[in-house]
Amino acid sequence: MSRVVPIAAVQDAPRSLGEPLSGFGASVQALLRSFPQTRLLVYPELHLFGDAPAHAELHAAAEALDGPRVRALAELAGDLGVWLVPGSVCERGPQGELFNTALAFSPEGKLAASYRKVFPWRPYEPFDPGDRFVVFELPGIGKAGFSICYDAWFPEVTRHLAWMGAEVVLNLVKTTTCDRAQEVVLARANAIVNQVFVVSVNCAGPVGTGQSLIVDPEGLVRAAASGAGRTVLTDVLDLEHVARVRRYGTAGLTRPWSQFQPGDAPLELPLYGGSIVPERWETQEES
């Protein structure tokens, strides 16, 4: 069975806060005319929320997930018949919280997944942290997971997504600072140690520092933006590659998901107050 998905990761500058979604819709349609094979379209973190809005503006722009913004984005994905990840949005939580929430819409025009950023970049961001990791199914293709920008600095995020069955991690980024060079290293490292694809898509200049990239499960860079300008990274992700690498090893050698053997003792993890239990180490897809 072929489990491939043609992807376009769009390194673009944020759209103006308050701009009608029709403008975004027109840009998506134009992109698909240029890249008609695309089935999964991914934009950067907070793509629809302006250059550098004040915290009060982000609060004012927040909506619940049953609000008009989400309904309009779902309709757009359905009209175009693609998987659409429009970046993350400002979500108003049920208790008035402000979440930075990644969304995925199916080709049927449904909200398929939402993920609240677990590690907001403190003290600079006003967002409340989410409380769970999110993986979602691309029917007939495989599983994807979400991380948002600073999440990539915490290895627990990608490790849990991989354990939950994610074969590709969509890392939505809005990095405007000089540490994008380190994030590029982290994208490759997270791919290598978890044997997953990583799509790390940053916003373009003059706001962001760009350097978006698509990394395969062995850490090889399949596509990369050379700088901060607007760039569309295209690729065809073969999610069978994940199973092959885990079976035969990275570079035909290293198989971290097959590390433990029957009878190995649990390894205590004092930092977490827990342990690695060998019987639970396999990914949920494999167990």
Tell me what the structure shows.
The chain folds into 2 domains: 4-254, Carbon-nitrogen hydrolase (Nitrilase/N-carbamoyl-D-aminoacid amidohydrolase); 261-287, no CATH class. The mean pLDDT is 96. The chain contains 6 helices and 15 strands. The longest helix is centred in the middle third of the chain and has 15 residues, at 180-194. Helix 4 (155-163) packs parallel to helix 5. It is globular and about 60 Å long. A 6-stranded mixed sheet has the order 7-8-9-10-11-12, covered by helices on one side. It has a 4-stranded mixed sheet with strand order 3-2-1-13. It has 287 residues and is of the alpha/beta class. Helix 4 (155-163) links the parallel strand 8 and strand 9. It has helices spanning 21-34, 55-61, 68-80, 155-163, 180-194, 240-248, and strands at residues 4-11, 40-42, 83-85, 88-92, 98-105, 111-116, 135-138, 142-148, 168-172, 197-201, 213-215, 221-224, 231-238, 267-269, 274-276.
Discrete helix count: 6
Q: What is the structural class?
A: alpha/beta
Fraction of residues in β-strands:
25-35%
CATH class type of the largest domain? Alpha Beta
Distance between the termini: 21 Å
- Mean pLDDT across the residues is 96
Second CATH tier, the architecture of the largest domain: 4-Layer Sandwich
CATH fold annotation of the largest domain: Nitrilase/N-carbamoyl-D-aminoacid amidohydrolase
The percent range for helix content is 10-25%
